[in-house]
């Protein structure tokens, strides 16, 4: 049985993330989306909020489980008895970083493989950071994120002065 872990911050989850999750479901028997609690970052959403948004966004995908984690990815993967890490790549700059992480993880735990999936062209530009920037200026993010995220962003995201003037 192939159990894959797709780790990330998902702050917030985008259609690009969901594309990778859906495509991983075609490859793996079980897909665990690992929501990283990175104490070095200041996320817009708490881990619990990100888990809930992902659960809502993936509710139609029975192979998917959403689990928060912190610490080393390889330890999380081992705890789950998973055999593969899935990483999405948008550009060559992603590859350089992800290759380094993959090689480090393989050194730490040789039994865990990493599979890279290139992002579908329609999402190759998309990132959570871009979504937050567009939302901060009052832009329409509906083409970037599912409805559950749009609603949470409206509640959570402070808008810029220029965006407030447009409303």
UniProtKB/TrEMBL annotation:
Domain Cytidyltransferase-like: 5-133
Key words, A-Z: ATP-binding, Coenzyme A biosynthesis, Cytoplasm, Magnesium, Nucleotide-binding, Nucleotidyltransferase, Transferase
Binding site for ATP: 9-10, 17, 88-90, 98, 123-129
Pfam families according to UniProt: CTP_transf_like
Major localization listed first in the record, in broad terms: cytoplasm
Reaction equation(s) it catalyzes: (R)-4'-phosphopantetheine + ATP + H(+) = 3'-dephospho-CoA + diphosphate
Residues engaged in binding substrate: 9, 41, 73, 87
Annotated GO MF terms: pantetheine-phosphate adenylyltransferase activity
Record's function text: Reversibly transfers an adenylyl group from ATP to 4'-phosphopantetheine, yielding dephospho-CoA (dPCoA) and pyrophosphate.
HAMAP family to which the protein is assigned, alphabetical: PPAT_bact
Subunit structure, interactors included: Homohexamer.
PANTHER family with a match to the protein in the record: PHOSPHOPANTETHEINE ADENYLYLTRANSFERASE
NCBIfam families in the record: coaD_prev_kdtB, cyt_tran_rel
Protein name from the UniProt record: Phosphopantetheine adenylyltransferase
